């Protein structure tokens, strides 16, 4: 069911700072099951396509540059109410506004380098997951 899965990326800043293990531990400790996982690097074209919804925003160029500067960890997660529960787990986009104990409060540096991406809807979770994973890569 769509509402049982969400998509996340551990962004280049968190990968560079060695936070993959801590973030994945927090995700699984919160009841999510990892159904797809890979370390990869987005090309400029990948990032421009993935973030196309933001292409008119003033931060688009910086976002693409940031997301292509190093590897990311892409994952599809499964849990009842996955999208909403994961967005609660990661916290506000700006780590200064994120609740204590959230992933962004623990691992993000700034609003621009905020450690993780989380899908904002069931529909986007499906689209974003399919962008990074073929059907045979999901379990």
Notes on the structure:
The chain has 139 residues and is an alpha+beta fold. The protein has a single domain, classed as Nucleoside diphosphate kinase-like domain (Alpha-Beta Plaits), CATH 3.30.70. Helices cover 40% and strands 17% of the residues. The chain contains 7 helices and 4 strands; from the N terminus they run βααβααβααβα. It has helices at 12-16, 20-29, 44-50, 60-67, 82-90, 103-107, 122-132, and strands spanning 5-10, 33-40, 72-78, 116-118. The chain has a 4-stranded antiparallel β-sheet with strand order 2-3-1-4. The model has no long low-confidence stretch (mean pLDDT 95).
Question: In percent, how helical is the residue content?
Answer: 25-40%
* CATH fold-type name: Alpha-Beta Plaits
Q: Specify the number of helices.
A: 7
Structural class: alpha+beta
Question: CATH superfamily, please?
Answer: Nucleoside diphosphate kinase-like domain
Portion of residues in beta strands equals 15-25%
Runs in which pLDDT lies below 50 for 5 or more consecutive residues are: none
Shape: globular
Biggest sheet, spatial arrangement of strands: 2-3-1-4
Do you know the CATH architecture? 2-Layer Sandwich
- Strand segment tally: 4
Cofactor: Mg(2+)
Family: Belongs to the NDK family.
Catalytic activity: a 2'-deoxyribonucleoside 5'-diphosphate + ATP = a 2'-deoxyribonucleoside 5'-triphosphate + ADP; a ribonucleoside 5'-diphosphate + ATP = a ribonucleoside 5'-triphosphate + ADP
Main location: cytoplasm
